[in-house]
User: What shape does this take?
Amino acid sequence: MAPMRDWKLAAKAFAPDLPEEAALRAAAPLDALESVFRPLAEGIPLETEMAPVMLVHPERGE
Amino acid sequence: MTILESARLQEEKRVSSVELTRQSLAAIARWNPSFNAFLTVMEEAALAKARAMDAERAAGKVRSPLHGVPVAVKDVFCTKGVRTTCGSLLFKDHVPAHDAAVVERLEAAGAVIVGKTGMHELAYGVTSNNPHFGAVRNPWDPQRIPGGSSGGSGAAVASGMVAMAMGSDTGGSIRIPAAYCGTVGIKPTTGRVSRYGVMPLDFTLDHMGPLTQTVRDAAVCLQVLAGYDPRDDSSSREPVPAYMPPEDHSLAGVRIGVPENFYFDRVDPEVATAVQRCITQAQSLGARIVAVRVPDIAALNAVGRVILLAEASAALSPYLADRSRFGSDVLALFDQGRLLAATDYVNAQRLRRIFQAEFAKVWKQADCLITPCAPVVAPLIGQTEVDVGGGKEDTRLASTRMVRGINVLGLPALAVPCGLSSGRLPMSAQIIGPPFGEALLFRAGAAIEQPLAWVG
Assistant: This one.
């Protein structure tokens, strides 16, 4: 299984403009979410597609 | 007064639309200083529309049961020439050039829109404690939140300012205020009601629906609101059935599923008892009660949170450079969304498909499900944690955990009042159905609802 993500490091890397306090505040709930979401994501069968469907003919709803 | 009562009194010529509208405006003037339910009151336009509706009725034309009835719309719905703020400083002076599809349909049905209701900033939260426009307050106890994000709509309907107010629901934002304010609220199936002209929070989770005093009024409104709209890519061509439930309240032949897992695990005992009373009542009206196991709802909620965080941050990213224009709670959510990886979002949408397939199996055992709508009664304004199930829980997570996953699945769900707690606060049941199963939800909801009489 892939390692859990370190959201504090992610904040520094991807949002360097974020004030430190805001980065910490953002990281805590993502840590909690990570423990549920990451194992789920790791278990998705390869052939599973995304839920939203691209419409080839949007004017016909198809 | 309900929509159907208003319609009947107009038909019997005992009241005019102008009189109803003046009553509504007077109620707003009386109660809005206490509850802050309305951001904008459209007095002049409403009275003009009411006069036109009276003239039409006198000429023998009645458009729908909403003809001449005062209603309100959340300030997330664009209204041509009328300020639409989305509860945000970003749009505090925004005056749209067009109406939302929902507004068009209400206008065409003869409804009289008296104003725009307050909400959680950008529809991104459950308290409606808005840092820019003030806290919306719960009519049952003004020290408590009305729920959100459609808190102004909940407060306006609960206090009788209007018989119906439109809400939007991305992770429970119609059903949570309905539950905390003691009103009915329907989140329809994805694609049932057009999103055109609604300021977006999340492109794949947003739903539009009415909050009303009774289930039958909600059916009347959805009849007007439902239908295909080519301007909304998610709009469905599924035919719109008749929604009004039968008068006899019989539930003979209906299989009502009661989840064995998740939904009753951490719930205030008073709420659980009230919902159980609804289930018993449904059984006494002929329903067959079936115990069912549902997919992992905590996991489903996590999927919903990843989708919402990512899509909302993407939609609002052009505005995020100036952090001073956001409340701190909303800003924290946008910051979280910015950090998520693209792979997380893609995988959340893949998990969504897996959960949709898993949940579809539930409908082989039951025609609908009954659950609590919120595990607790309305929290106090500023209360960040609630006591439930022998522990503390974040107010936002507690308020959304019964309802958020249903948006991920796109299923219809109805919030129905089911009594008052010992502290005289509303409690609510949620009825969940298969795609486009709204008619059955109204049938079951009308049979179990316990309309609450708010006295100001």
